[in-house]
């Protein structure tokens, strides 16, 4: 075990468990049993149920804002109890712990994996006979706590090729002449539609968005259009975003995850 004097890394926790049941609290309890001095920050537990794509996006967006050494436990796991692997991945600034179902592919598209293991060493699980429906409690929470307490990654299981980790398919954006074709990669709690088209593609250009043959103007802020009107902005997350001023763009435009959008670039 790591020395009690070793600095403790924090844990960032993301799930689709919601807050009406005890699942999240139980994971906190398991972590505290291993080391009550570990700081746990709840990223969100409101990921839509079984929506791996939403979890991929949220984890990718949160990753840059945490201290070096943070352990990210992410559990959106419709394949729990199946043959899908349980994994941990070491990055330059932290660790990822969770199911190998594509949930980490957003982070890994932007940050290099140094080392990856399949979690096969049950010494670091809560029990050697884990539930087939709650790996968050029995495998991921305890493994994350041991990592945060200083246990080396290779002690947790069998080394695997990081290139073998599951990648969640997301169509890339394409620039063709004066148009950029992309998709909606996330819908936030306000109904804002986050595309996969980065700021850099439209910075210092005149542009608008075409959705279902509807022209949506680009502006600097939501309030640059009338209440109830759609607008395209460069969101704080670094992607082109479609919103409705004081409204819900997903409901108004009737589009969501994976739907296609087009940005039109205009000559100045």
From TrEMBL:
S-adenosyl-l-methionine hydroxide adenosyltransferase C-terminal domain: residues covered: 182-262
Gene3D superfamilies: Bacterial fluorinating enzyme like, S-adenosyl-l-methionine hydroxide adenosyltransferase, N-terminal
Record's keyword annotation contains Lyase: no
Presence of the UniProt keyword Lyase in the record: no
Pfam families, per database record: SAM_HAT_C, SAM_HAT_N
Domain S-adenosyl-l-methionine hydroxide adenosyltransferase N-terminal: 11-157
Family listed: Belongs to the SAM hydrolase / SAM-dependent halogenase family.
Descriptive protein name: SAM-dependent chlorinase/fluorinase
Organism of origin: Merismopedia glauca CCAP 1448/3
